[in-house]
Specification:
Acyl_CoA_acyltransferase, two-stranded antiparallel sheet, 199 residues, 38% helix, 9 strands, cytoplasm, alpha+beta, leucyl-tRNA--protein transferase activity, seven-stranded mixed β-sheet, acyltransferase
Length: 199
Amino acid sequence: MRAAEAIALISRGWFVTGRLEDGVDHVEWVRPGLRALVDTEGRRRRRYLATARREVRTHGFTTTLDTEFESVLAACAQPRGKDATWITPAVADLYRELHSVGVAHSVEIRLSENGVVGGALILALGGWMSIESLFHTVPDAGHAAMLGAEDFRLSHGILVTDLQLISPFLRQMGAMEVPLSAYLSLLDLCINPGGNAVD
């Protein structure tokens, strides 16, 4: 799949996932009835950000953008525990395509003695972004990656941050769920202002 096809699907509210089965790399597109978004004005979100900033301040992390895309992509693609990775080789190739056209981005969290110790994989179109995946290899680097994604949101004028599917961790950091119809309206405002609505 080329970047233009993927962007068209993303613009209609779909997100990508992959699975390996019997040696076959399946790329699948999902559009659930509820979508997890960052509640940027919620008290829980503000509390999470304040706590995270306090926790990471003492570690000496530095944050960069798009300097180690391949490293972040490879780290995010590693299996977590017993769960198989959804970033299969075919999905990773798609992210590379999207990176080549300026849609996929990486946030890198560094420690001078350890190199890249955390990061985030992000997609961005207009005023919309999606935090696709996070990783960390040392304590609090995951929080630092989330703060890096927040800095990306602020510096790029992002209006909607998509988290795809809700989880207890995402609720703790200030996520909320909205119906698909509401999500599509927000998506349309972000990436297609003044144009035809997505469906």
